[in-house]
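Q: How do we represent a protein-ligand complex in a form that can be generated token by token?
A: Start from the inputs.
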Amino acid sequence: MRVDRFLSNLPQFNRQQARLLLIEKRVRVDGQIVSDPHHDIREFSRVELDEQVLQAGKPARYFMLHKPPGCVSATQDPEHPTVLDLLNEADKHDLHIAGRLDFNTSGLMLITNDGHWSRHLTQPQTKLPKVYYVETEQDITDDYITRFEQGVYFAYEDLTTLPATLELLGPRSARLSIVEGRYHQVKRMFGYFDNKVVRLHRESIGPLMLDSRLAPGEYRALTSEEIQQCCPAMQPL
Ligand code: URA
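Then emit the structure tokens for the protein with uracil bound:
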């Protein structure tokens, strides 16, 4: 919400008074004086007027998790452990996953309570590269490189996947970079060649690489730089 609206929504100020407070440089957001009426106030922002705290701001939380195979990318599941079960954190119900992985896929998973941040990361327009290490049942040939670069037609959605980069690592292993996150996308791309994916591991999302110190099932909080790198338009926390 814009800061002028935030202020004028308070019972003590009308719109004109709210504007005046900003002009008089009496309003601070996260410790910085704000005079631009368009400045965005979020649930995480601390807003002060002179010495008075108008909103304390709830803590924004961001984690990277090394998802092991055999756990569900969901907040609840009747049968299997979920990625949230791996977190030893308070108020887990407040957290959500930014970009799911299949049950048997391992690797980098981002978890947060900041919907604005996770939407930015996952919306198709952002086109953040997601890099996967892939092992397959059959050999991977050079034809795959061209086909993935040109796009694979998905009849169910009636669309062609965006150009993807494939690097061959061995006869049956490769690194694939895609900028979308369609349902079972990697498996379906290899499925075009009737080649079954037998191991799938997400190494990175945009600038964020899975921390090699994290064993499967372990997680850590993201640093402020990492949070910012993923969403440069976001005001620093
Ligand atoms: N593509 C898939 O097929 N599965 C995943 O888990 C992620 C990408």
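Residues 101-102, 105, 184-187, 200 surround uracil (CB under 6 Å). Residues 74 and 82 are 6 Å apart (CA to CA).
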